[in-house]
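C-alpha cells in:
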C-alpha cells in the first residue's frame, strides 16, 4: 500500500512566542520541521510539507537540508485548512498520514503502528496515551462542578493515519476541527488508537521545548 505523508508546519506558534514560525524553531541544532521530516520520510512513499504562506523560502531550505524529496505548499488560516492544502497536493495514495511539525520527536514506528491499524480495517488511527492528571470540569470562576472519570480518556498525538478516500471525503464536508480524526468520527468512521509515547509531545509552550531537549539528549532515538 502507498503511504502519503502530510506534515503541517504552517502555524505561527503564538503560544511558544518566538518571532519566527514554530516549525523553524531549533531543537538540538535543527528545526522542528527537519526533525519530523527526517524521522518519518522513510516510512512514506510521497511527502508534502505545508509551510507558512509568508515563509515558503525558509520552508524550502529546511526541506532541502533534510534531503527528503517533499513537495511544499502554502498552508491556510486554520490547521484544518492547512491539512486540506496538503491532501490536495498528494498524488494517488492508499493511506494518508497527517503529522504536526510541532511534534519533532516522532518516530517511524508510530507511523507504522497507525498504518497497520488502518490496513487492519480501521478508517483512521493515531498514537495516544492514557491521561494521567485528575480531570475537573469547572464553571464560571473556576468552581469545580465535577470530577471526570479519566479511565476511558486518551490524549491523542500525531501522525494520524487515514484511509485516503475517508480523509478526502471528511474534508470535502468543509467542517473545521482541531484534528482530522474528529472529522472522520463526525462522519461515522471507525477510529482505533495505538500506543503513543511521551516523547511524541507537541511543542506548544516554552517548557515543552525544554522537555523535548531532555528527550533528545537522553540518547534514545
Ligand atoms: N498548523 C498549520 N496551519 C495552521 C495552524 C497550525 O499547519 N493555520 C500546524 C502547526 O504548524 C503545527 C500543528 O498544526 O505543526 C499544530 O498546531 P499548533 O500546535 O496549534 O501550532 P500553532 O498554531 O503554530 O501554534 P499556536 O496555536 O500557539 O499559534
Ligand atoms: Mg494553533
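Residues out:
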Amino acid at each position: 500500500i502507498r503511504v502519503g505523508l502530510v506534515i503541517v508546519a504552517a502555524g505561527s506558534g503564538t503560544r511558544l512566542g518566538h518571532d519566527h514560525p514554530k516549525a523553524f524553531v531549533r531543537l538540538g541544532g535543527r528545526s522542528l520541521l527537519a526533525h519530523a521530516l527526517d524521522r518519518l520520510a522513510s516510512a512514506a512513499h510521497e511527502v508534502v510539507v505545508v509551510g507558512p504562506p509568508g515563509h515558503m523560502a525558509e520552508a524550502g531550505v529546511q526541506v532541502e537540508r533534510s534531503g527528503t524529496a517533499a513537495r511544499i505548499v502554502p498552508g491556510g488560516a486554520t490547521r484544518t485548512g492547512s491539512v486540506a492544502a496538503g491532501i490536495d497536493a498528494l498524488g494517488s495514495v492508499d493511506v494518508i498520514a497527517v503529522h504536526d511539525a510541532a511534534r519533532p520527536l516522532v518516530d517511524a514506528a508510530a507511523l507504522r503502528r497507525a498504518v497497520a491499524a488502518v490496513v487492519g480495517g480501521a478508517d483512521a488511527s493515531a498514537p495516544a496515551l492514557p491521561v494521567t492528571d485528575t480531570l475537573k470540569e469547572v464553571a464560571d470562576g473556576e468552581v469545580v462542578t465535577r470530577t471526570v472519570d479519566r479511565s476511558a480518556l486518551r490524549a491523542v498525538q500525531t501522525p494520524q493515519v487515514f484511509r485516503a478516500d475517508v480523509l478526502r471525503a471528511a474534508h470535502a464536508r468543509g467542517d473545521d476541527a482541531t484534528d482530522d480524526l474528529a472529522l472522520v468520527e463526525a462522519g461515522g468512521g471507525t477510529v482505533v488508537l495505538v500506543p503513543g509515547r511521551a516523547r511524541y509531545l507537541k511543542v506548544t509552550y516554552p517548557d515543552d521545548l525544554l522537555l523535548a531537549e531532555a528527550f533528545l539528549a537522553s540518547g534514545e532515538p
